[in-house]
Amino acid sequence: MGLRRVFFALTTLMMAGPVSAQAWATRAVCEVPEPGIFEAAFAPATAEELVEAARAIPNGVGRFWRLVSPEGAVSHLWGTMHSADRHVLDLPDLLEQRIAEARLLALEIDPILPTRAAFEAQFERGDWFRNGQHDPLSETAINPRVLDWIRLRTEGLGWGADAPERLTPGGLAELLLSDPCNDFSGGVLPVQDGRIQMLAMIAGVPVKPLEDPDRIRLRLDAPGNEDFAVDFLNIYGGYLNPETTSQDRATNIALYIQGRIGMMLAWDHAYMADLLGDQGAALARVNRYLLDDRNRQFVDRSLEELSQGGVLIAVGSFHLPGEAGMIALLREAGYSVTRIPLPGEVRK
After folding, report:
1. What secondary structure letter does DSSP report for 77?
2. Pick from 50, 55, 56, 60: which is nearest to 270 by CA?
């Protein structure tokens, strides 16, 4: 069990402070020799249960989709995995071709800083700290075991085990949004989203961000969102399970390469329901914002460009499936959305 879907399949590219692996996140655990399905990774769920749950998720198979506007303009949608694993960075040839041919690349965020002032501001981080506010997380509804894992992570990153008492929920989340297995290659290798952006830049394709880089931190720290912040930290802290194994990671990457995004979502639900003992309620509440609300925003901010065609949208793969996923929303907007099967993917 342990480090699972959302590190790879949701949406964030923010980097934490000094990079240092937690004791459990060794290169032996993190480096996957060959992706493959290990059914023991799904425990306490079974593969059969997850396959059945995935069948109920619309558009749950496929990473690459062709979009045709009502006027006939053609664009594409790609579901990313926020990982620097070599198997994930090995993009399909057809995707690389479409990147080079694109008129515009739309990403969740543009991590390239726009000004020197923005570069300097990232080192200040004054709004990450509680500044005398009380309400330490140890006195909230954070699962005690999860809080211990969060402390291990912040200590391993050089922020100290007391970071939950010193940082705002949004500041703390900034540290948890980075996969510990990306620590080894941070500043050297991009995650997949970064590689896509790099290829677009080489080809001279401009980038359009679909949201502000600080959007999650600001949401968590906004007055009235305290309960959401607790849910969010329970979920992201829950992915730091020290029982994570190389087989867990191999299975996760294999599901992604096979295009089985719905099964990844089902696995995520089963894991969190077992860890938090809440039947998946916290994950559902978090996903109403992280997926449902942001899916709508991503689509709304893409429609003007999509009407002209030539756009490649690359967002976390969990944004694609589901009744409120981007595929369903684009179809509601009058677009024809057709899956492009890729080598290595399952048929359905």
Report:
1. E
2. 50
Write out the two tokens for 89: 């960075």
Instruction: Tell me how far apart the alpha carbons of residues 333 and 227 are, in angstroms, rounded to a whole number.
Output: 33
Taking the C-alpha atoms of residue 150 and residue 230, their distance in angstroms, rounded to an integer, is: 13
The C-alpha atoms of residue 345 and residue 254 are separated, in whole angstroms, by 10
- Report residue 244 as tokens: 């994570």
Tell me the average pLDDT across 190-213. 97
Residue pLDDT, tens place only, 125-138? 888 888 766 566 65
What is the overall mean pLDDT for the chain?
91
Cα separation of 272 and 264, whole Å? 12
The per-residue pLDDT for range 290-348, each reduced to its tens digit, is 999 999 999 999 999 999 999 999 999 999 999 999 999 999 999 999 999 999 999 98
Rg of the chain over CA atoms, in angstroms?
19
Neighbours of 144 (CB within 10 A): 7
Please report, as a single letter, which amino acid is at residue 114.
Answer: P
Q: How far is CA 322 from CA 62, 256, 285, 291, in A?
A: 12, 16, 15, 10
In 177-325, where does DSSP find H-type helix?
A: 192-202, 215-221, 226-238, 246-257, 261-276, 281-287, 294-306
* Overall pTM surpassing 0.85 (yes/no): yes
